[in-house]
Amino acid sequence: KSMELTQAFLICCCLVLVHEGSCQPYLRLRPSPSDSLPVMDIIEHPDPEYDPREQDLDERTLRKKLGSNFDPNFMSITTPVQVNLSTQDPLSKFKPPGPIPNDIKKLDLSETPYGMRMKIGKKAKRKFLQWLWSYTYCPVVYTWKDLGVRFWPRYIKEGNCFNEKSCSFPEGMTCKPVNTVYKTFLRWYCQGWSRQKYCTWIPIRYPIISECKCSC
Questions:
Q1: Which CATH superfamily is domain 2-29+46-215 in?
Q2: In contact, 116 and 109? CB cutoff 8 Å
Q3: Residues 155 and 204 sit within 8 Å (Cβ to Cβ)
Q4: pLDDT digits over 133-175, tens only?
Q5: Closest-CA residue to 154 (of 52, 55, 85, 83)
Q6: Tens of pLDDT along 50-75?
Q7: What is the DSSP letter of 74?
Q8: Residues 6 or more apart in contact with residue 42 via CB below 8 angstroms
Q9: Cut 0.85: pTM above it
Q10: 3-state secondary structure (DSSP) of residue 43
Q11: How many helices (H) and strands (E) does the chain have?
Q12: 158, 143 Cβ separation under 8 angstroms
């Protein structure tokens, strides 16, 4: 059985190496639609005069203003506890959810680049395809980010694509964002200068990476 798994691995390696294009994956993976995520830190005006005052940070008032847009899974009013995600064994820390994708299931491991065919046991094929799914899977790693006092809620759970290793074989491709979700926050916005300025909370939509794929 171990010999069958080794043969399947070698065959798949050959299939990938002879595929046209050095950065063309053998799986049909979508490219990243944006290179600007996660959102870069906003450069704020350093003058504390542009910060909300204590009476502007009344939680009851702000909760009412934000309404149903308040999502405790992605936003926090108080400093959240950061979870330390070890990357020493990424395949065990981030196991792919759900069944093996059809793109991987349809791989013909019995056909070699030279037209020869090799019989591979079902169990060996299933184990190899599961390994391949784990290797090319691109998880979203979430960490809490402090947006500063001029946002409410102040803390957002931001997504990043896991990139501690290449997600392709041969190496060269990396995990990149392909889908985002938008969460509505309140932003403290000021117009004018000095005593003539007017400040208020306005709703803004903040993009968060929700899905990553292996891509060039």
A1: Cystine-knot cytokines (2.10.90.10)
A2: no
A3: no
A4: 777 888 899 999 999 999 999 999 999 998 888 888 778 889 9
A5: 52
A6: 899 999 999 999 999 999 999 999 99
A7: T
A8: 147, 148
A9: no
A10: coil
A11: 5, 6
A12: yes
Give the span between the Cα atoms of 203 and 186, in whole angstroms.
Answer: 5
The pair of structure tokens assigned to 44 is: 């704020």
How far apart (Å, rounded) are the C-alpha atoms in residues 146 and 79?
Answer: 8
3-state secondary structure of 185: strand
Residue (of 80, 50, 214) closest to 153 by Cα position: 80
Nearest to 41 by CA among 179, 197, 164, 151: 151
Q: Which amino acid is at 94?
A: F
Domain locations along the chain: 2-29+46-215
pLDDT digit string (tens) for 70-106?
999 999 999 998 654 433 344 445 677 767 777 776 6
Q: What are phi and psi of 95, to 5 degrees?
A: -80, 140
At 202 the three-state DSSP class reads strand
Beta-strand (E) ranges in 21-91? Answer: 75-76
200: three-class secondary structure by DSSP? strand
Q: How far apart are the first and last CA of the chain?
A: 34
Q: Which residue has the tokens 């990396």?
A: 174
HEC readout, 84-116: CCCCCCHHHHCCCCCCCCHHHHCCCCCECCCCC
Determine which helix (DSSP H) or strand (DSSP E) holds 175, and give its type and residue range: strand 174-191
Count of residues in the chain: 216
Residue where the block lists tokens 């990476």: 209
